[in-house]
Design a protein that fits this description.
MALR1 protein; ConA-like_dom_sf
Length: about 130
């Protein structure tokens, strides 16, 4: 069957995601937190939480799902997300099969349209267990 999980970062990092870096990385915040744009989430609400790179993060930070199961004709993996890229930033989504060390780049955006929310959906095919 088809199941869909929705996550809005209101209470946690969406249990699927955890920070793998020890240095400050992703933080949960809202538009009122006083650290600059965005001043609301993708729906225009300034009290809803979203994930943001902390100002101490000078390089990059990673979010990783827990292990997801293989896909086939019946079990499709689709991830839809809203994102905001500031000047000079970039966002990449990668696939790592559990049998491999390398991360395959599935999608990236370096933010030609600065300072606005955009949405994207990625469909993932993998014949073995994987993380995103």
């Amino acid at each position: 069957g088809f199941s869909c999980e929705k996550c809005d970062f209101e209470t946690d990092l969406c249990n699927a995601f955890h920070e793998v870096s020890l240095h400050p990385g992703w933080i949960r915040r809202n538009g009122r937190s006083g650290v600059g744009p965005p001043y609301s989430d993708h729906s225009g609400n300034d009290t809803n939480n979203f994930l943001s790179l902390s100002s101490e993060t000078r390089s990059s930070a990673t979010l990783r799902t827990n292990v997801l199961f293989p896909t086939d004709e019946e079990h499709v993996c689709q991830i839809t997300f809203h994102y905001w890229i500031s000047q000079g930033g970039a966002l990449m989504v990668g696939l790592q099969k559990c049998s491999e060390d390398t991360i395959k780049n599935l999608w990236h955006d370096s933010g030609e349209l600065q300072n606005q929310w955009k949405a994207n959906t990625i469909t993932i095919n993998s014949s073995e267990n994987f993380e995103v």
